[in-house]
Structure formats: C-alpha cells, structure tokens
Amino acid sequence: MALATIGYFILTLAILVTVHEYGHYWVGRRCGVKALTFSVGFGPSLWRRTDKNGTEWVVAALPLGGYVRFLDEREGAVPSDEQPFCFNRQSALARAAIIAAGPITNFILAILVYTAISMLGVSGRLPVVGDVEPNSAAFHAGFERGQTIVAVDGEPTPTQYRLHMQLINRIGETGSINFDLRYPESTALYQASLPIDNWLTGDDRPEIYQSLGFGYFYPDMPALIERVIDGGPADLAGILAGDEITAINGVAVKDWRAAVEQIKVRPLQSVEVELLRAGSRVTAVVETQAITLDDGVQHGRIGVQAAAVELPASMMVIQRYGPLEALYQGFTRTGELIAFTFSSIKKMLMGLISTSSLSGPVSIAKMASATASSGFIPYMEFLALLSVSLGVLNLLPIPVLDGGHLMYIAIEAITRRPVSERLQIWGQQLGLVLILSIMALALYNDISHF
Known about the structure:
The protein is of the alpha+beta class. The chain is built from twelve helices and 18 strands.
C-alpha cells in the first residue's frame, strides 16, 4: 500500500476519532465531569501533555480509535472532594447526554461538511439513460438512450448521485420501481415501472443498473486507441497508440463501444483488427486474452485503452445554495445517510444484503486516497459519509459501543436501578467478540476484493 494511501487513511481516522471523542469530552465537561485522559489512538503514546484541568492529552501509535477516560469510582477509590465530578455520580440523563454526544458530533460534522459543499457548489452529472439492453425490463418499459431520469418513486433525481441513492435504497425489496423520464429537448414526462422481486438480495457486488437493463450515458467515443498496454496482445501484434479501429473480423465498428463488444465475445481467439494509421489502412492479427467475471463468464480483451472523452457541459449540473438553503441541504443529506445506513444494517441482518459489502480498513484507505486525489470536495464528501457511518455504528445497542452504554442507562431508568456490574462485564465481553468478528469479516472482504 502506497505511503500516500496510508497517510490519507491515518488523516481520515484521526479527524473522525478526534471529532467523536471531543463530543464526549465537551459534553462531559459541561456536565461537570472531570476528564482524566483524551486519547486519539491506542497503544504506546507518541505525544502527550497535561493541561491545567488535569486532563492528559495523548496521541497514540495505533490510529484505529480513541477514548475519553472520565473520573469514575468504579475504576478505583476517589477522594471525597472529587466525588461530585465522577461520571458515575451524574444523573442518568447527564450520562446519556455524554455518551450520545460522540455519535451526535459525528452527525454534526457531516451536516457542516454538506452545508459548506452546498454553498461552494457541487457539480454532478445528469442522470441520463445510456445503452438499454434488448429484451430487458428497461427495454420493455420504454427506456431509450438519451432520456433523463427526473424522479424515482416520486423523489427528484437531479443528479446521478441522487438516482444512485434512490435505487440502492430499494435493494432487497419486492414490488416495482417507478421512474419519471423526459425525452431530450422535451418538457413532457412519462412514467415507467420496473418490477423487482427480492431485488439483488444477497448479491456480493450488486450491479444496480445492469440488473434493470440500462447503463450510464457516455458520449459516443471514436475507436481511437490512446494507450497500448506493454506486453499485451495488441502490443505483441504491433498495434500502436494513435491507431483507430475500423473493423474487427470484417465487421465495421463505428465507435469504441462497438469495438469492445466485438472483442469481449471472443476470449482466447485470433481476431483480425483493421486499423487506420496516419491515413493508411493496416491489419493486425491479435490473440485475445480472457478475463473471468464474478459470474464466471469470460470476456475477451486485447490490452488497449480509449482516448478520454469529456461529458458535454449540457450533461453537467452545478448546484449552489445560499447559507440557509445550504444548511437545509446539510441536514437533509445527513438525515438521508443516517436512515440509509440503519436501513442497510437492517437488510443485512435479514439477509437481504450480502455481508461482503462490509468494508474494512483497506477499503477505507483506498477510498480516502482516491477521493483525496480527485480533489478537496470529493474527499470531504467521503469524510462526511464515513462520519455518519461511524456515528450510526456507535449507536447500535452493542455493549462496548456507545449504543450499548445507552441501553444500560435506559434499563436503569426503567427499572430504577443500575444494571449489575457482573452483567455489564458479561455484556462487554460478548460485545467485544461481536465487534471483533465484524472487523474480521470486513478485513476478509478487503483482502478478497483486493
């Protein structure tokens, strides 16, 4: 893993952990509780100092979490003059507020990030229908290349991102997905309904659009080769960067997609590729390679890349809001992500979503690096998404997590007596085993997808 990737991973976790733990610390101090330690990371300390309030601030070697340690009589004897500042001496409401403050601060971070992004302006691509698979559900419903998807299930989809969020919310469900579509150069809408039945339930890598029968829209790309992979079939056959593919096995190709379609159905075969090179026509015989997809189907390839074609400006939309509307967008997007995350967890527990979708540290590191390389705004959006995920995860009623502690306090409030220390210890052990199992599964997914 590249040093830059590791660096972005550490930076991302450091930001999220610091924000989360500072929420606990800030509310704890406001409730009059003494904080003994504020640590970002676990293990040996890399840096530490003690402030005037007696709180030790620590940066530790393993950036996989953090903690705030409050004064608490359950951890040892406390002088009588300091007992009022103990965590365990606070009311149930105060303790609940301190514990809930961590996840809530993660949500606040997401709100602030999305608010700032909404004010700066976010560019997104219009949700335009690309190629429609013959005899697919989309084909029979009247989907056509170039149509704009205006809404899904009554919810507006001004960008591809909004369309994607609406569709992934329906994974595992049965019924129909209702689309509002608009033809190019037209204001009239028409409705189309695509039936789903336990849609993509249990799929390791759900192909949302492909399963419905349509894809992203891409402009027509000339069959112009920008790069030839060293040592690949095309390179060995003498094909050069700058060549334009005009025919394959005597069948004319009008664009890059047509060339790809001709190659992918011919794995491990000899194909005759006709090319236009500096105004002259040449022919190359290429022995195709084979790549095996997740479903076991082999596709042919020859080791060439197309020249990049940018989306036309008409297919891009920039959404920019004033301060109040941007704040509303921040709350809305964060709320949607919270609801989506809880819904995904529920569907995973019901077996409607494959557990292979769980991501671990390797995936997080790769995404942090990729989004940071794409620019400041993509990285901040990823940070907000991860912050919401961390907040929701910590609210789950699992001992060792904030949600588990809130569960104990709720039981105490109902029964009028605290949960026994023995039961809490047993719960902590069980919760730790569960969390470690989830982490192991996420790491396994990372390795298997690597």
